[in-house]
């Protein structure tokens, strides 16, 4: 799979929930397990300025995923929990495709 690069100025303006959905979508599309640790790694790898620990830009901050993941589950966009794997609902997949298209077109979300 080729490396995905998204301009910092574009992703910094996107809602954190959208970045998480997009990251989960990429993992699932490539057949990778989407557990909490892997999702943290993917989010940080794609969007380091958003998912790093304040003052420590080379380290991911898992707290930045905790509440958003609960909100995404409440909004019926994802399934699963930090103790298990995550999945996208039909609604979540639809949103992920919209986000991917916006990134492809360079639109600000």
> What global shape is seen?
globular
Distance between the termini: 25 Å
| Count of DSSP H/I helices | 6
Strands, count:
4
CA radius of gyration: 13 Å
Major sheet: arrangement of strands: 1-2
Q: What's the rounded overall pLDDT mean?
A: 91
Report the β-strand fraction as a percent range: 5-15%
* Structural domains: how many: 1
Q: What is the CATH topology descriptor? A: Arc Repressor Mutant, subunit A
Oligomeric status of the shown chains?
Answer: single chain
Describe the structure.
27% of the residues are buried. The longest helix has 16 residues, at 90-105. The model has no long low-confidence stretch (mean pLDDT 91). This protein has one domain (8-104): Winged helix-like DNA-binding domain superfamily/Winged helix DNA-binding domain (Arc Repressor Mutant, subunit A), CATH 1.10.10. The protein has 6 helices and 4 strands; from the N terminus they run ααααββαββα. A two-stranded antiparallel ribbon has the order 1-2. It has a two-stranded antiparallel ribbon with strand order 3-4. It is mostly helical. Helices cover 56% and strands 10% of the residues. The chain has helices at residues 8-11, 16-29, 36-46, 48-51, 63-74, 90-105; strands at 52-53, 56-60, 78-79, 87-88.
């Amino acid at each position: 799979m080729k490396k995905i690069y998204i301009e910092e100025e574009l992703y910094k303006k996107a809602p954190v929930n959208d970045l998480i959905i997009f990251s989960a979508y990429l993992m699932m599309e490539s057949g990778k397990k989407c557990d909490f640790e892997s999702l943290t790694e993917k989010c940080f790898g794609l969007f380091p300025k958003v998912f790093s620990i304040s003052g420590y830009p080379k380290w991911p901050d898992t707290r930045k995923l905790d509440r958003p993941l609960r909100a995404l589950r409440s909004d019926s966009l994802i399934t699963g929990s930090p103790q298990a794997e995550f999945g996208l609902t039909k609604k979540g997949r639809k949103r992920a495709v919209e986000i991917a298209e916006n990134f492809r077109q360079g639109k600000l979300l």
